[in-house]
Amino acid sequence: MRIPPYYKMPDWQRFLAGCVIGLLIGFSIFLFLYGTAQEKQINKIREQKAEIEILKEQKKILIESEERKNEDLEKKLTVQEIEIYISDHHMDEATKAELENAVADELHSIVNHSIESVADNRELIEKAIERKPLIVSDITYHFKVKSMVIFSTVTLQLQVSSRKDNTR
Questions:
Q1: Ramachandran angles phi, psi of 85, nearest 5°
Q2: In b/e form, how buried is each residue of 134-143, taking b as 16+ CB within 10 angstroms?
Q3: Fewest CB within 10 A of the end CB: N or C in the chain?
């Protein structure tokens, strides 16, 4: 069997030439559309990279600013309140409350002072409490400081070291 000679038939030559020309035109249109789409994507990626760099710089600046503010605030922390706890099982609650208020009144001068300065004067505070007798209901109380916690709230645990009845 023999292959028919299509190169001699003009209809087939036009058909094959049209297919080749259509293929070339279609491929060139595909390349054009694909190239423009890729160009848009590349431009979008570049814009996003630039925006990411700007945002990273802003984030870095904000973090540094917040760290500086935190350091300044840590330096400026102050004592806000004083809590006193007296450990004595033989004392009634009213007397304890009155003594706690009296000791807190003695220490009210350290409120709104920096924590650092209060911590530096820790021994002075302890000695001031231990040396100053408090008189409640004609009984003189002397205290010993068991523990002292200094932060925005100064917490003192006191123990009655001696009591003297002044009525006799």
A1: -125, 125
A2: bebeeeebeb
A3: N
The total number of structural domains in the chain stands at 2
**Which tokens is 106 given?**
């003695």
Q: pTM for the whole thing?
A: 0.55
Give the domain range for residue 18.
Answer: 6-75
Query: What does the alpha-carbon distance between residue 108 and residue 110 come to, in Å, rounded to a whole number?
Result: 5
Q: What is the DSSP string of 8-39?
A: G-HHHHHHHHHHHHHHHHHHHHHHHHHHHHHH
Residue-wise pLDDT for 87-111, tens only, equals 887 888 888 888 899 899 988 888 8
CA dist., res. 97 & res. 86, Å (int): 9
